[in-house]
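Re: the 361-residue chain
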Amino acid sequence: MGDTRLEPLVLTESERLILQNWARRRTTAQGLARRARIVLACADGLNNTAAAAQLATDRKTVRRWRMRFLRDRLDGLSDEPRPGVPRTITDAQVEDVVVRTLEETPQGATHWSKRELARQVGISPTSVLRIWRAFGLQPWRTEVFKISPDPLLIDKIRDVVALYLAPPANAAVFAVDEKPQIQALERTAPVLPMLPGVPERRSFDYVRHGTIDLFAALNTATGKVIGKLSAQHRAVDFRDFLDEIDRQTEPGLAVHVICDNLRTHKAPVVHKWLLTHPRFELRFTPTYSSWINQVERWFAELQRRCLERGVFCSLDELTATLEDWIKTWNDQARPFRWTKTADQIIDRICRYCDRISGPAH
């Protein structure tokens, strides 16, 4: 069915205020907030297709909530009762759990536990957990973030992302970084292998046999990695690694090296080397923005699949393992797929800034 002959959706002033509050308030369930935004878009004169495109949903969803609102007004945006045993928890108790979780902390603690909140609200811990799951709340979890203070933040994001999404012709793009001080750790007791119903077990303590640094250059087009192991990661070591990239890259190609703002990457010895290798160009990521360097994704794979549970009785054994792992990776290499545009990344950073600089709710 098309969008022709739609019944006009007109809001009263009080309905519009309520819908705007639902759409903006952090304690509103995401489903209800989404329905409120749909109704507000329809009230602004958008047809179902246009509203769906604006809100990144499908036309049938917009049509359903338009019709529900026209039929039942604000009451139509609530979830319809489902068949089954009647609920023993009231809407007020559900709201109390959500509001307390989002806006309060228990005395003497930084966040709620399900048992502590259950005592406050008068329901079971299992019911608290179900409410948390329904509203996507995980008060035991936390994440960290850092907004880059780089004055060239936007320009650098656009520069690096352009190399990922639209790399220049006749050029090779490498995401480059160092993983310093990889430890050769040997457990003090043999590792006990996994058994049915029993995970692999290892001793808590270990013997440390030294460290080694790994320079890595990820070819963003092929996924292959050029690696070089070094006892240190000084400017001269980075220069030597650029020599290695030069040797392993087809002559005649321009080389774009994406790297961070470490001082060793900008040292005079590196500048001198670049002057004698004009096909190389260093492209710097914004400060505190390692997430934009694709080689960090490769380092995460290395850590998870090779180092995290590895046992190394010597530095030589660690070195051999790293070299073998890089070879194995390159034998079946595939590039990582970058999907975010520069505008999407910048918009997300702006939203973070709005949240941390705006008035408290």
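Strands lie at 171-187, 206-219, 225-230, 254-259, 280-284.
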